[in-house]
Design brief:
This protein is α+β, with helices and mostly antiparallel strands and 108 residues long. The protein has one domain. It contains 1 helix and 2 strands; from the N terminus they run αββ. A two-stranded antiparallel sheet has the order 1-2.
């Protein structure tokens, strides 16, 4: 699932503050300066967009891993289906009887 990135100023991408920080004022303090408020919004937007980028990368890696695992399971299922049908061990005679899942097609 793709998430749309956040855009500011009708699609332009203002540069985040050099510190990439978000400042909040103390409850007892005065209002935050307009420039600081602008940088806060830009920095928050930038961080959200970076998070979106990283989750898309993780998603593609997980999808590739799931596909590889699915292929491995399918290969194992094929191998198991081609293998012996059953094993029967007789304790008295100490013999193991293997019944093949495939019929013998060789002519005698």
């Amino acid at each position: 699932m793709s998430v749309t990135k956040l855009f500011l100023n009708k699609g332009t991408a203002p540069t985040p503050a050099a510190t990439d920080s978000v400042d909040v004022r103390e409850f007892s303090g005065g209002p935050i300066a307009q420039q600081d408020a602008d940088y806060n919004f830009i920095n928050i937007t930038d961080r959200i967009n970076k998070l979106i980028d990283s989750t898309e990368s993780i998603d593609s890696t997980l999808t590739a891993s799931i596909n590889a695992l699915t292929e491995s399971v399918n290969d194992l299922t094929t191998l198991v289906g081609a293998g012996p049908n059953s094993f029967v061990y007789d304790d008295d005679t100490k013999t193991l009887t293997i019944t093949s899942a495939q019929e013998d097609t060789t002519a005698e």
